[in-house]
Structures
1.
Amino acid sequence: MRNQLLMTLLAVCFSLSAYAQQLVKGTVMEGDTGEGLIGANVVIKGTTIGTVTDFEGGYTLEVPNGDAILVYSFVGMQEQEVLVGNQTQIDITLGADAEQLDDVVIVGYTKKDEASPVQTIGVVTDIVTPNVTNALQGKATGVSVSTSTGQPGAKNNIRIRGVGSITASTDPLYVIDGVIINTDDMVQANQQAQRDPMSNINPDDIEDVKVLKDAAATALYGSRAANGVILITTKRGAVGKTQFSASVQEGVSVVNYGNMDMMDLNQYRDYRTAMAGGVEYDPAGWDGNSYDWFDLAFQPGRTSNYQLSAQGGNDKTKFFASVGYFNQEGIVKGSDFERFSMRMNVDNQVNDRVSFTLGTDLSYITQNNASNGNLYSSPLMAGYMQIPFVSPYDASGNLRPILDASSGVTGQGSTANFLYDLNHNYRRMNSLNGGLMGRLNVDIYEGLSFSSTNSARFEYVNNRYFVDGTTYDGSATNGSLNNTDAFNMTLTSTNTFNYETSFGLHNLNVLAGWEAQSNDRSVTGAYGENLPSGIEAPDGIAMNQGITGWLEQYRFLSMLSQVQYNYDNKYFASVSYRRDGSSRFAPENRWGNFWSVAGAWDIAKEDFMASTKFDQLKLRASVGTTGNANLGIGLNPLSRDYAYRPLYAFNQYNGNPAAYWTQLGNEDLTWEKRLKSSIGVDFGFNGWLSGGLDFYHETSSDLLMQTPVSATTGFVTQTANVGEMVNKGVELNFTTQNMQRDDFTWSTSVNLTHNVNEVTRLYGGQDILVGAVNIVREGLPVNSFYLPEYAGANPNNGQSSWFVNDPSVTPENMGENMYVDPRTGRVATTSYGEAEYTDLGDPYPWLQGAITNDLRYRQFDLSFMFTFSVGGSIYNSTGRFVDSDNRTSNQHVRAMEDRWTQPGDIAYRPALNDVAGANHSSRYLENGSYLSLRNITLGYNLPNHIVENWRVGGVRFFVQAQNLFTISSYSGFTPITAGGDGINFFEYPEGRIFTGGVTVKF
């Protein structure tokens, strides 16, 4: 069989196959637009011989004789049959099949609820990326995609309709081909928690992505759907001759500096000279060269993406198979991401009543992360802070292990040389992830069907952090190794009955079922020091050995039901109910009930709308509850799964084994809950405009928080359900068909989101300080910035100052360190401790969105997308080190701008050598607004006459640029890498990615 397949491939690729008796070619077009249909099936009736149309809807097929009948089909279109006769050119126009279109949209356990807005992202492979979550940015309203690092494969922060929890997970629920994927488990298996769990999936295997947001769409997922649901459907086979698709993509990433501009040698010399009161900085031992440490830290990162897939089948069995290889070097030296992947999906129609689906996937990932150890052992931190006078090389041109006085420049102390470390230390993650899914569908009786989906998924992760004894970080330990192995296994079984019937103009769909999921994890780790040279194995550890490990498990059991009703496909109503049980809670609080009620009215189908130009005008409304049982943020893995139970751990006491309590249990713990309500409208006008408008209000209650307890318990706090917050907002998306001509089309898509978050209840109304700069306070958005307000330099003496912000302090009674700021008339102080902390905004934008344009001219297509964010602040914690007043490390060029030099100066920055200016304050709080050209792609499809000569189904070339430019006032690289909390600390910047590729179908 293998030899036959290889011979067939060679024959097609090199056009060595013999010509059949008759060759038929043509184009399959869509009835409404006249555009070619990509992927339409053309099959010789009664056989499995066929083909699939190319990018322009064209096809070429050899038929045995003129008696052959060709069957033309496409999902959602009416099938057509044509007798070949003596025709050699057959062009077909397929019209919409209204009955099919009502049935093809499957959302979760059942068909789409017409009372619910479901945004489908049909193309996720239009950008070259290691994970599908990158491709979601700008594609749907209400979906915020952010990251705190540009590390290849790193985890993105996905927020759907705002932040709905204070301490529990805010990630959405992912469902792949009907199977729930709990990414929280996968992140916990990877103790570094830097890799995006969705990076296991090859984006080229994905058919489409659906985003579920409101109660009607998410309530069926109950306790896990509080943060929204993302449904991922992978590609399936199609009836017809086996079609192969091969793509090769190569690219390069370069750093996007944005407004980040560090001092060069001359600027740094001027800075140090000014610090010394005019005495020129001339370090002894300097070799006369200038060293750009940012340039040494960054590199052009190569991206390679190779994909091969095959699909085909007949009336009984269809299949899709793929193998892929993706490799992306980071723009920071020492970082990369590599993935090998495969997938196989098989659909079989056993008989008229029974069908089954099998799916399997496997991926192997290797990820190297840039070091984040000692300041100067991290390429990023050294790039920021190392001065341009210091050489990484000795007199012989070899890398120095440690940069100290022997480097030729004194005054910097002893620091690491990250270039040397890159050759000796590493922080590496290896992951093997896979799954097997089987689904059985049985049509029991007229309208009654049964579906059973069962899956097993596993993930093995090895994290290894090795520090060589010859490096700066390893000098104190003579080398160290931290090795962790984690294994995660999830079993899921979903079983549903579905009954569908119609009587007159009434249509009814009833769903009932149950679902069970089990998860088991094991983690083992070893740490030790004093490794002999050249030994990187745990058994080589000689000193300070440590072993850790634990086993975890949790179980879910659910019952679910839904009733959907519509009258004449104009009036819609649905009710759903789900009851979830989770082992994460005590038996008396183990079960939660979640429900939704929704309705819709398709006004455009009313008789009185017949004379209007509305293609669609559907009003929708829904209300319901969902929950959140992922308790992960701030808790160790055991506390997450056993938060209601007292926990203890083992150690030693006086040389003897001993146990001690680590957690005070709380059997009253229960689900976090979210009450969702929304009202919206879907609209379409004259075939030119289509879109949707939604207003929503979501209340999160029983939020998990740490609450104080009596000291007699031996603990300070206990986890309890006490908090509440609200998210409310508006979403608008619309698409315009700007031009529709035979050889030119142009459409524009816009999506806008406005969300407001407010914490409405905390334990005893008490504020919660989060880190050094954030606060959780009633009446404010969660994690608002809470800082002293910077007032600039005191004009009299040049010292840093802050506004007092105490109403009781006036110019008449102010203290000796205070003065009246001449710019604002407010009282300021040069004593940091006298400045009151105050609410200074939050990290969440007032408005965010995207604008996408798609143009096609003959064989060319052009697509470009702008994303933007208006409002929201970023705390640039890096600035405390690189925009300071008395540090001798390298500085941002703006560190010398608007600086006080003499009495009377009205300046933003204090006099050099000021020791207090780098304290946390609004000095480092910046505007997070931006406009970014996120993606631009130019493609070219070879014309049919060339494709036919080459004997292939289609050839497409493309070039692409990602993150081409960003317009922002932010002083760092780009504001996009501020993550979900709006804090940047020595960020790993985004890269500009330039890619080209070719896809061949044969």
2.
Amino acid sequence: MSGYRLDHGGDIDRDRPIRFRWEGRHYTGFVGDTLASALLASGVRMVGRSFKYHRPRGLIAAGLDEPNFIVQLGRGARTTPNLKAPYVELYEGLDAAPVNAWPSLRLDLLAVNELFKRFIPAAFYYKSFMWPNWGLFEPLIRKAAGLGTAPALADPDHYAQTSAHIDTLIVGGGIAGLAAAHHAATSGQSVMLVTGGRHWGGRLAGTSDMVEGKPARIWIKDVLRTLGAMPNVTLMTRTIATGHFDHGMVSLCERLTDHLPPTEGSGPRQRLWRVRAGELILATGAIERPLVFRGNDRPGVMLAGAARAYLHRHGVVAGEDVVVATTNDSAWYAAFDLAEAGAQIVGIVDVRAAPSPALIERAQRLGIALYLGMAPAEALGRRAVRAVRIGRISHSGRIEGATRTLRCDLLLMAGGWSPAVHLHSQAGGRLHFDRRLNGFVPEPAGGYRCIGGAAGDFARYSTLAAARGQTAEQRHGPIHATLWSISQNGAPDAQAWVDFQNDVTAGDIALAARENFRSVEHLKRYTTLGMASDQGKTSNVNGIGILGDLLGKPIEAIGTTKFRPPYDPTPFGVFAGHRVGDGLRPRRHLARHDWHVARGAALDEYGGWMRPAAYPQTGESEADAVHREVLAVRSGVGIFEASPLGKIEVKGPDAAAFLDRMYVNRISTLKPGRCRYAIMLGENGTVFDDGVVTRLADDHFLVGTTSGHAAAVTEAFREWLRCEWTTMRVLVEDVTACWAVANIAGPKARALFRALPTDIDASGDAFPHMTARIGHIGGAPARVARVSFTGELSYEIAVPWRRAGDLWDALVTAGAAHALTPFGVEALMTMRIEKGFLHVGADTDGTTLPQDIGFGEIMRKKTDDFVGRRSAHRPDGLRPDRRSLVGLETTDGNAAPLTIGAHILPAGTGQPRPSDGWVTSSAWSPTLGVPLALAMVERGQARMGETVPIWDLGNWREARITDLCRYDREGTRLDG
């Protein structure tokens, strides 16, 4: 296609040139150009390669229906794949590249695929690669999938979201949408009018077609001027309605800075709108269908409406020697406009034998040759169209008799128009097939209405009347001839392309029909018809029509596929909005965060909190730091910030009875000042959470939870009180962030605690293990519990969050005499593995029942009901071969800890087979000098002492099943 730019016309600024790069070469366009229009004006003909056969492809359309000109924009973190070039606005420095071509667009080595076309027909992957092993071929097929390349770096842009409630939302900025907006706005309604591109007026933008006695471009400007001056009107360009959902909600994606260079764009890149309107008007227009004939995919074959759009919007003539092939009137006007712009119209080929006399007369005045009752048989050329063979067409779509060749560099095709019914269908709207239009049109639906081309109405009088809420006789316009495909021998042609991007031909559809894939949904998935990035906007109706002809059924009996949102590919970022990073899951900091950072803590996220994993010293690895910290706690005293541990206050006359219902353990028998470890189940009987419950008073409890589960446990408590036990007098409050907690652990912990300025007696008799005391430390109110997750004498000291610094400084100062060592989460986890303590979420999963972790006897002794009790006693929960939590000690002499997730296999197994369980926690034990692990093992409690093989990341290991506790089994160290 030898496209060129006119020196006049188009909505571009010729005084403002823009330099950009395409495939590494520099080109020049103008402000107002798109990437597609600028390259078309520069004479670029081949712009892409098809997905399957890598055939050369050229520009076909002028909107979101473009299937061929798909590009990768930008580089690095801001690269964006699979953009449609007609919607990529030029900006200075734009850098675009083709997709699906290697090493270059002109020399694509994978074009060799076409030589093997007979071996890779539609759905070949369902019928091939069965021998010798599918796994040999799968990586290659998966690597070949897709078009562009997703960015490997995090998206540096940010996105916005907002909502709107208005009287009238109008989707579509053509004359129907503009007229509807004007009518609603002058009635006093609040109006939002959106259009996908930067141009208003739709297909008539920039043309001299008459609208209510004015040239279309003048009429459009006048209406826009009026609407722009009205305060109750919001005009939104570069905004695509992506979805139509329940209760009339419409999602809009507004492109805010995509048309600007990355260095100039400030603020959000895109904005997602959720709009609810009293009245929704869909003026989304219609999509032009290609003709299906041999060679119709060659560069230089274009939709007639697209050529007209590039002429009037951008001042670009798409070719010099033009042949127009059509089934309807619309392409004639494209031919007339191009002829008046200076192009040589070689001929108009119309399948109709008797089109409008007025059209014939105008064509003859312009000296255009007419070929009526004829159709294109084949587009000729290699990398671009050079000529077209035409011949007489029968009613069945067969070329009859001799053909003749017309030389051209641009072949325009027009196979009819399909109303853009996507938003209508997404909302559940029904369609019927209009024989006059030869397209699916929407049936009336409640809550919204379709007008103009979207309703199958292409007559301006009735379109404008409908836009203004008036009743007028609908004038569809001229009859469109029915022609789904053109062949030379009567059979669907394997070189006649239906889906250009996915390389689906009329022959592929015939193959699917022969293999009995007769449902349109089966056809779609078997051939990939309509599954490309354009979602079949230009191909679906032709494909359905061809299938109907093959099956001998009317097209309305075939039906359409389901239209799903989004209407056009939309960045994930705009759906996330501000909910990324800290906006999605804020990272919470400890009360003494700055102190930990100053001490060189290696911070990591645990349950949403940034906590020290360890405190590596100079030249020390993190593993070495953990080793040192464990030994320091075991031999002296360590300090650990436990502020993230969940703290929920439960208070009221019925608090004890309530907690009895929520926990497996009986809480009501707990005395004030005592603590009890307890587990909580979900309704399905599986372990939900665990923690230490402290009774502060007869009607007052402090419930401990895991660090990341405080909010979930609080919500569960409140839900049961709100929905089931509404008469219980209980108050629940999450106070996790109200109290900062320092945990001191080790043999010297009591000595350190006694050095604090406190009124709490720390002696073993006055303050034994699993008790709590309330008092003061340094004048601050304090709650202190003798609980331990390390297996050592421990004091868990809680003070108001704002007094955390005072407590911490007092402990560090007093601890200097005892070689106080800060330790992190990894050291804590290592010590709890040595002690065999459960960690919910690590040692449990969504199938773990209380009897699997040693709570079976406690559950049996509790006769009262509690949440999850009945579910835990289902037959599956009583199986003797259930997995239970046990310890593992390696026996193979390998000092490396087992990998979490490694599978335990039955003894004597030499080959992989269904596993008996898996490793849930694992660490090297600095205290014992051996690797230790916890595991869920089938019948684990009955297999103590058994040596089992373990499949660990491709290696065989051996370990012995042991008790959970491998350190201080008598518990003497807990009491100091």
3.
Amino acid sequence: MKSKLKLGFCFALCISVTLGFTTDRHSLVVSSTEPPKESSSEVAPNKEDVAPIVPKIYEMKVDTNVSNRFAKTSVVSKVKNLAKTPQEATFSVVLPETAYISGFVMEIDGKSYKAYVKEKEEAKQIYNEAVGRGQAAAHVEANARDSNRFTVSLNIEPQKKAVFTLTYEELLQRQNEQYEVVINIHPGQPVKDLNVEVHIDESRPLKFVKSPPLRTGNEISKNDDKTASLAEIKQNNSTSATVKFNPNIERQKQLATGLGTKEENGLAGQFVVQYDVERDPKGGEVLLKDGYFVHFFAPSEVEALPKQVIFVLDTSGSMDGNRIKQLKEAMNSILSELKKEDVFNIVEFSSIVKVWNVDKVQVDYEVGEDPWPLYDSPEAPQKNKTNQVLPPAYKATDENKEKAKKVVEKLNAYGGTDIKSALEVGLKLVKKNKENKEDAHQPIIVFLTDGEPTMGETNTEKITSAISEMNSGETRAPIFSLSFGDGADREFLQKISLKNLGFARHIYEAADASLQLQEFYKQISSPLLNNVNFKYVSNVTKLTKTVFPIYFRGSEIVVAGVAEDEFLPPSIEGNTLRGPIIWSPKVETPVGDLERLWAYLTIKQILEARDAAEKKEPYTKKALDIALKYSFVTPVSSLVVVKPNDTSAVDTEDASKTADRPYFLNRNYATPNLRPQLGLAGPSTLSFAAAAAGFGGAAPPMPQPAVQEADLEEDAYMSPEMFAPSTTDIPTTTKSQDLYEDIKNKLPWLKDIITVNGTITLPNGSYKISTNETQVTSTPQCPKTPINGTAGVCTLLPHCPQVFSLLTDAKVFQEFFCPLDTFVGVCCPIATDATSASAAIS
């Protein structure tokens, strides 16, 4: 997400925590309690220590305790520096995006240093000062979807040990009729003593407990015997179970191979425990203890509501290629899943919004005009739009579903992105179907896009406001937004969904994108209730959200609060297929405390409300007060770590992206050109990927020679020759906004088609304006330049200012446009030095 790409690199000691969609990030500040002392790190290296010796992880332990669906996880990693010089040891944990860090302790040379949480802005000054100091660090790659990354690096003296302990907490979310505990494991090397334990204690009997095969964390995969966890599952009693995962060295290597990584790099994947509880099929259960209560509501004995699904699908030029292919594949599967009592519509949008007549397999309704007349549109626009009639919602009969698949096959990627008009048409289809007062279909809009608005209204605030105003009254429909790939404005999609009864999800651009779309649809395919309202007659305060527009089978609604006096059971009202219904739950005693669960859920919902609000300050203060009280690291609070002899900090990174992470580096090999970069995770000029004291469902470190079990003893020497350095080219940071404004001044027509982040959408895709030639893999020849019509060379647009006067409008520009990977190019005369800095806009 654009707003997250700020300072993503720090030196010496750094901690990172990423939050999926939020614009405010978790951050860390490190402060020192001791004056700097002269360290052996200043001593010149001797011959024996010319190359780095990677610190050894001799023990790693993960403990997760779950009670009342609330999970608290402790990650412990023990490291020893076997070298004769100080080493940078890094502890890195990938944790679920829904989790909040609540504790971190480092034990160095027998002394513990405990982190604490402070207000974000209070730590900012130290953070900014720390970023500029520039001590060296090396990096390797690590990534995982829907995750946050926490990283801390510190200097360990020769032959000394360090112990890292991280604690994080989360409320497990029920999906597809089960809860999942997901533990990312990525030590970066085989570990002799690797232990994972998950303890489950619930107030109701457990229906099942299982541990599926390990996952990569990056793609949906089928069960595979090669990655079977072989975990030990012990049922302690009807409400309690313990799951143990203790793979030996040989099993770690087998799992590494099964997960697609080098066995020498150790296990790199996600260990998962799945379970569910027996429940009251109607009113749910209320747990009450010490004045706090939580209400779990997941009715099952209810008939599904028939639904009207409006698929609003982006078919702009940037969807061309594999994206449109994967969308078609997913839609064919989703259409097959529609129930016979459902109805549906298919809307595609690019520069033009089209509503398909499924019965005739043709477009019957269009909004907008094609701005690219030089190109042949796959579907010619209708000439007369004055008498158009919106097609009806089509029954999900077998015949109509087959016709709909023919419609899907006809979808073509072309043109710009008119999001506002597309959603307006979708809402019109909802209202048209509701003209029949007896219609009982629950409307659902599934909105998928891979980009930003580039046609029609492009201001996202105005789009959100207009759609929210239009989507009101009795016909109000939830809008579920799907951002496809990195080009989509995830913050915008999150906001528009939150303000319109839905939620947003990200579809990662990978081989399993079609499966991701199908998995999302599965979650919303069976609405059981709408207009669900929890009513409390007791004197209750500090309630979390109590009104929910829709409840889907397999999920769960959770409400928490504080009971001032004697607590009386609440009532739950909702609409079913058979009409309104009222339920009353049972009140029971939980197995553990509920206060931290209440605090966690309250913060989550306040921050969601903040994301959708225009004025964010009141929500920020409320969330901060609770976060500080309960020591949760959130988008509005920062983790402060105290350690000897150093002060540093880092801002956050997205663990779903392949980003360079700090690993071990001998100070004798500190490279002088390492420096902080805006918008980058930091340069990687020397990377030793042997051992990372950390976890993550991540891409593997660099290849290593085979490691024998004897090498994994605590005091075993790891030869520096075992690890080879790698180099990575890092793009130069530019003043992007200045560049965009400058080029818009020189090419005034550009302002109509350029977005705020410098992207322009053309019929064959979206491209970004850049001056950085290191990002371009090749500069091919092109057939015709604007100056003399002869052959030229495709050049980044800012590097060919001599043709600007001839590019009089967008249509002329299209004649001479040429793509340079994902960047905007123009056919420039060959005589021009395309790499000249003086010829470029700077």
